[in-house]
């Protein structure tokens, strides 16, 4: 079955190392090239893991605050950012060490250095002053992405931060402007506002989290309005200058031009693919106008033997999508007839409350004129949500009309990110409302809200009264 060949993977992020490990497990000779000193890519070193570590700490502060009204009061928190950085780095190191060990166990050859193509069969690796050339039978490009920037706001990692430097502050700023109301901006706004900074968010579009359904975003918005200093939507940042006390930012909203001074600015305006640093021109691999590599369902590029996975292939730019693609590419490289054809790629915004969805969003169904039916379960009727004082959430399931097969699920509420896994499975398994409604969920848990929502569709719900 399997052809033994030399598979070279460029980039050791969640896409690249998964591809390398799967390829090695399938009997290939594997070289994994990484320009950073550590493995794990953006996700581990400057993305998912450090941001979620900080979010865990900030949520603990909020949780402690929230039990005051129930009769438990703690002293004011003392936040030592230097210690938090040590803690965060320890988490990264532990996971990074695990990846290194898993590579060693599989005999994956790790080559540290910056890779670029010489041809569609060979790669040059530069590490400091050393240069090495290797040939490959198959190559998987997994070079990921980096933060986009604004021409008039040069990142200095001191006053003007990007998504990497904002994770490494040793001091909590008095105030911060987050430019960009996407998930990274809002997660960081959540962290630093809970840590005590006055955080404002400015977004060019008319609403935050443009890709998410409005009813879910509204639930988060209510909480953010009480937490953040200012949320400015429909507002464009025009320019900035360094002044005494911080950075003066000029913005234009519907009501006119305004300028304000902030101690720190976080520029969080999307991500661009790392395809301009690997001499793709020497291979003939096509990229689109924005630099993303076009691939088919087998993750093959237009050049035989060259594959691409993860952020370089475009949206959704998420770690779990990269990992899944990595495994598919490794299998296809080895002659296994796998394909990337998920019915649902879950997306989570790890704010508080969290927002998560899988499958079709309601926005998508409306925009494409696709008929659907919807059932919703308000968490005010959930025993668990009431007992933990988090009733602001809701679960909604979108169904194919007539058949009542699940085509999309949206959740806003605490732990939505954990709850969406079951929803993704229900879509992949082609579940009907009845399947979910008849699955006994444990009580009292937030997981019950999913079967309760299906019961709303089935009209068998007893936890709500529906006319
Ligand atoms: P990357 O993780 O970007 O890895 C690419 C690797 O390639 C890097 O290590 C890079 O150094 C290396 N490389 C690049 N060029 C070369 C070269 N020429 N030679 C050698 N090596 C090279 N996603 C989620 O799913 N959940 C989250 O909660 C989440 N949170 C995030 C929070 C933040 C702040 C950020 C910035 C991102 C977050 N993401 C999250 C997105 C996630 O990190 C990415 O989708 C994921 O890392 C993409 O994986 P990848 O393997 O495609 O590439």
Kindly report how far apart the N and C termini lie.
59 Å
Mean pLDDT across the residues is 97
Strand content: 15-25%
Order of strands in the sheet with most strands: 3-2-1-7-18
Number of contiguous helices? 12
* Ligand set: flavin-adenine dinucleotide
**Helix-strand category:** alpha/beta
Low-confidence stretches: none
* Global morphology: globular
Cα Rg: 24 Å
3D structure, described in words:
There is one protein chain. With 467 residues, this protein is an alpha/beta fold. Helices cover 31% and strands 25% of the residues. It is built from twelve helices and 23 strands. It has a five-stranded parallel sheet with strand order 3-2-1-7-18, with helices on one face. A five-stranded parallel sheet has the order 9-16-10-11-12, covered by helices on one side. It has a five-stranded antiparallel sheet with strand order 19-20-23-22-21, with helices on both faces. A hairpin with a 4-residue loop joins β19 (347-349) and β20. α1 (14-25) runs parallel beside α7 (319-333), α3 (48-66) packs across α4 (81-105) and α3 (48-66) crosses α5. The radius of gyration is 24 Å and the shape is globular. The N and C termini lie far apart (59 Å). It binds flavin-adenine dinucleotide. Flavin-adenine dinucleotide binds next to α1, β2, α2, α3 and β4.
List the helices and strands and how they pair.
Blueprint: E1 6-10, H1 14-25, E2 29-34, H2 41-46, H3 48-66, H4 81-105, E3 109-112, E4 114-117, E5 122-127, E6 130-135, E7 138-141, E8 145-147, E9 160-161, E10 175-179, H5 183-194, E11 198-202, H6 214-227, E12 230-232, E13 236-243, E14 246-253, E15 256-262, E16 264-267, E17 271-273, E18 306-308, H7 319-333, E19 347-349, E20 354-359, H8 362-367, E21 373-378, H9 383-387, E22 394-399, E23 406-413, H10 416-428, H11 433-437, H12 448-458
The structure holds flavin-adenine dinucleotide.
């Amino acid at each position: 079955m399997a052809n033994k060949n030399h598979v070279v993977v460029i980039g050791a992020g969640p896409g690249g190392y998964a591809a390398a490990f799967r390829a090695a497990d399938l009997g290939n000779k594997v070289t994994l090239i990484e320009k950073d000193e550590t493995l794990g890519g953006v996700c581990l070193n400057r993305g998912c893991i450090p941001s979620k570590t900080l979010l865990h700490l900030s949520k603990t502060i909020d949780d402690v605050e929230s039990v005051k009204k129930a009769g438990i009061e703690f002293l004011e928190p003392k936040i030592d950012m230097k210690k938090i950085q040590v803690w965060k780095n320890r988490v990264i190191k532990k996971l990074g060490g695990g990846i290194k060990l898993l590579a060693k166990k599989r005999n994956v050859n790790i080559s540290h250095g910056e890779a670029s193509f010489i041809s569609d069969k060979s790669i040059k690796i530069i590490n400091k002053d050393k240069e090495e050339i290797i040939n490959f039978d198959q190559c998987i490009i997994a070079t990921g992405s980096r933060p986009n920037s604004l021409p008039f706001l040069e990142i200095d990692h001191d006053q003007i931060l990007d998504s990497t430097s904002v994770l490494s502050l040793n001091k909590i700023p008095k105030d911060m402007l987050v430019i960009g109301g996407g998930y990274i901006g809002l997660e960081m706004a959540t962290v630093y506002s809970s840590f005590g900074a006055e955080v404002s968010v400015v977004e060019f579009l008319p609403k935050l989290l443009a890709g998410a359904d409005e009813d879910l975003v509204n639930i988060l918005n209510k909480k953010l309005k009480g937490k953040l200093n200012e949320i400015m939507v429909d507002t464009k940042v025009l320019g900035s200058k360094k002044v005494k006390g911080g950075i003066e930012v000029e913005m234009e909203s519907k009501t006119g031009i305004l300028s304000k001074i902030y101690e720190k600015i976080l520029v969080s305006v999307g991500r661009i693919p790392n395809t301009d640093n690997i001499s793709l021109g020497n291979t003939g691999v096509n990229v689109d106008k924005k630099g993303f590599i076009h691939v088919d369902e087998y993750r093959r590029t237009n050049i035989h033997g060259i594959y691409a996975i993860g952020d370089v292939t475009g949206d959704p730019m998420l770690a779990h999508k990269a990992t899944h693609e990595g495994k598919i590419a490794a299998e296809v490289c080895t002659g296994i007839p796998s394909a990337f054809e998920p019915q649902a790629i879950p997306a989570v915004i790890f704010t508080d409350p969290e927002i998560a969805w899988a499958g079709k969003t309601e926005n998508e169904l409306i925009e494409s004129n696709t008929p659907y039916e919807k059932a919703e379960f308000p968490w005010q009727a959930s025993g668990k949500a009431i007992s933990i004082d988090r009733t602001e959430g809701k679960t909604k399931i979108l169904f194919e009309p007539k058949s009542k097969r699940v085509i999309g699920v949206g959740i806003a509420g605490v732990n939505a990110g954990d709850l969406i896994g079951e929803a993704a499975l229900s879509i992949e398994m082609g579940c009907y409302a009845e399947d979910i409604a008849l699955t006994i969920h444990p009580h009292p848990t937030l997981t019950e809200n999913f079967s309760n929502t299906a019961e709303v569709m089935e009209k068998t719900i007893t936890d709500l009264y529906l006319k």
